[in-house]
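Notes from the pairing session

We agreed to fold both candidates in a single pass and log them together. This is the raw record for the first candidate, unedited. Please don't reformat it; downstream parsing expects exactly this layout.

Candidate A
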Amino acid sequence: MTSAPGLFAELKRRSVFKVGAAYLVVAWLAIQAASILFPTFEAPVWALRVFVLAMFIGFPIALVMAWVFEVGGGGVRVESGGHSDLKFYGLIGAIAALAFGWYHFGQPAVRPAVDADQRSIAVLPFVNMSGDAENEYFSDGISEEILNQLARMPELKVAARTSSFAFKGEKKEIPDIARELGVRMVLEGSVRKQGGKVRITAQLIDAAEGFHLWSETYDRDLKDIFAIQDEIARAIAKQLQLKLAMSTVPAASSASGDAASGVDVEAYDLYLRSLGLLPRRDFRELGEAVALLERAVTKAPTFARAHATLAIALNLQALYAPDMPVRELRERASDSAQRAIALDPTLAEGYGALGLVATNTARDATALLLFDRSIALNPSFAAAHTWRALSLRASGQWVESERESRIALELDPRSLNIYSNLIWHMAADGRYAESRALAERKLELEPTSPSTHIELAVLDLIAKRNQDAHGHLLKAISDDPRSRSLVDDLYAALEGRTAKAPVVAAVAAQLRFVFRPETNPYSLVNVTPAALLALGERERALEEVERFAAQTDDTLRLRGVLRVALVSAAVGDLRCEPRFQAAVRRVDAVDGLATTLCQR
């Protein structure tokens, strides 16, 4: 009964507790300092692990020394504790075993990224350190340009801008971001712009290991901005032990307007301002982007990337903006894309933009060749994969289209547009559970997305979940009281609480016009036929499909997406009707589902 207290008293007398506490404090401070200094001096990733392990090993050694040696007025002397020695060494052995076990098994695990391949990276939006919110576009633009440089390396998988920039302002751990984006490496940094000077700090993090691989600060004149982007891309390539593709070397300058000959800084500034206006596909922002890019290419006619981005913006404007001269926009988009390619034949965006024009004018064979070229130049170009998927679908290649869409989603896992493409793909194929799972995931990413609420509403109408459909439609419509009244009347008719005939007429005439302007165009092809089918009006649903097919570029807000949207319509066996197939042919599309679905 006295042995334990005797050991405790002996530990206290020999100052073992004091030494242990002091050691732990000093070791903790040393580890914190090392975690900051090691990356600064570019120490290898294993160095910090070895240092931490040494701190653990030193702890029991310090306790043993405190037990064995006593420091007093007579100097240092060795003590012997008899049976106490055996108990103490047994205790030390247990402490050492526990420490070793904790180090290897008990630490909070850094969950590995989804894709542990070292050759995968996300570029997070660089932090604006300029003290002026107006410069936010500049730091975002620098991040995107570095992303574009890296994406041109065929060995490297690069997460798309839409997804990596979705984490802007979020306080998430780097491993969590990497896991969600399916990458292992993460590049982050900051930008300080003052007058004609810029300071860019960048650091590369291995999310699986939790360590900084590389960091650098660049102080340059603003006119050297392209050279900085190229330096950063090359430094990362070196760290990842990649070999730069030969095509990326000249493209680094020519894509940005030839830094060697001195690009117009104001033109580059206009170009950067436009980049943040494209991802949301809002027709008002698209108009602003087009105006900025037109000014940029006027000031810098050899600015290839600005020409390519203008071509993309004009294509999107033709798809999403109401009351616009579609044919004129497409001609301008084609001209800008061809200028970009002439200036820089290695620019993937130019071929992608030209392919989009071909898709929207029913030239799918040409479009696919252009998208193949774009993807060959930039395998991480998620938009090109998406556009290729749409062209494949419009030409009847259903399975290949889904495969391409999934590649796009892997590269850009937070893109609402890619989610929409896959949601309608699944719904048209009758895979409603898969379609709903994607729609619910999309709603988690953006709870206020009108297109997602329409997608869920259509799925609810198919499943006869009338109340849920009613709720989603209300969240998608415009603020006009007449819109709410129409949706309420539809719900009442579905529930059998009101006469159906006037509601059917109102739905056929008005439902497609009541949604918010930013609604995804695919949704509008689906919602009215789905509502009419839910009301039991198969004939009226067919008439609605035929009405869509009869529209021209000059009268249809849906523009070039009509071909893809019609073959993606979630209309069940209605697509087996000869009139539906005739409508598909009328828009120069091929229904790749009819052969299989209509034989089930």
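Candidate B (folded immediately after A)
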Amino acid sequence: MTTLTERAFAYFPRGQVRDDLLTEWRLGLARLANPETGEPFTQDETAQATQQGSRWWIEADAIDLVGLAIQSRALYLADQVRVRRASSSWLRSYHGDLWLGEDPLPPNPGSGPVSTVAAPGTLFIGSATIGEAGAVTYRDQAGLRYQVLETVSAPAVGSPWSLKLVGIDTGPATNLRVGAVLTLDLNPPLGAQPSATVVENFTGGLGLETDPEYADRIVSAIRHKQGAGNAAQMRAWARQATSAVADAYVYPCAMYAGSVLVALTQKRTIAGPDAMQPSPATLASVTGYLVPPGSPVVPAGPFVVVTGFTSAPSNVVLQLSLPRGAVASGWADVTPWPGYVAAPAVVESVADAQHFVVHSDTALPAGVTAPRLMSWDLVASRWVELTVASVADLGGDSFAVVLQSPGRLLAVGAWISPDMARRDDLAATVEAYFDGLGPGEVVGAADARIDRAARFPEPGEAAPYRGGQAILTPVIDALGGSLADASVASFSVTVPPVPAETIRGPGKLTLGRLAAYDLA
């Protein structure tokens, strides 16, 4: 919401002009005499003459409404000058034409690996050009089409092996999930099975570029002058190659003079810590757009490498002062267990989906036999509620946990926290914090190349790569008034490491394990 201090001109809220006019009326009447009595108007007479519903009140209110209508047009026009406030039509026809010279990017297809079986040597013709006539294509159960991304031949052994597919059709519906079955459509190779199964979630399937995403590219073009293939221009080209790119980070002279490394992050379309890792199709699209001699924008000469990032998982322990025994806003139990002293509670051993042992450095509170717990799911980056039947102290900081019914089989080393009402809100907030972190550097601070190969844009300007105490700001905003205090007890990796090989791309902090405990 726009505030008064953000306006470069006077802004009148509803009723202010009316109240100012009535005040002037009252002051004026105080200086006049009542023609019927010859005496000055009393305060009661003045109040009665200007009360709600009186002639003077109605007249002042009408003036106020007319002023608001005029003012609303001024506010609308003022908003159109600001890129991030402009309406869709102004954003496209004015700012977009002025700074980008292009419309919002079209929808993008999802891509990912599938498993299939074929006779040894069977050739699957593929292409990074979407809709290539000779490429092998598949269809999913909804009728959407996918093609093989790279030409490959089946291995010598007739066991399942992996193919990379990219959607011919576009949009979020092409983000297939694990287990989805596709059938061969056009150009089926001889000796291939008629079906394939998705083995990793497809990513990158997106609709038309949204107004905020389009505005973000315009702001970048305004902020950094593009020209002669500089870092700002390389970043802009990478972002305009496909709508799947969330952002691009440029490392000039990363390998040697004349080389450029461009690291991509992808817009999130799935859950999990690595959702921003670019898909094969995203990498292929940007590579085709930036790498000479096939590039339509980069002339021959520069050595351009397009990569993703290397994940650097960071484990985080938060301590939160929330209401206890508050089903809707805080800890589920009056005495939350486990607590935190020096290390998070972890699953020590697992017997089956209903029985496991937790190691905790805090004792079970007196009278507590079935605390409400939650465990962190590393793959989905979410907490899973555990409905506990009983907890028994085994001694040596070990506790036997029995669930009311068999659930998801926990992994040894899984982090356990006391259950809380807004577990999903907190998990999503921490996930978004890590999404907002950018990749780090590709050369160390002591490397002679650092002055030229430092990341663009700089971390002090956009997408900082250092994590730590700053995570508390979004956490406090998300939990609101129910949170009295918060602390970061542990943040295992705060700066992404420099890669051993520059060409593999920079490191980026991603969310590893997350635990939350009561801040006593």
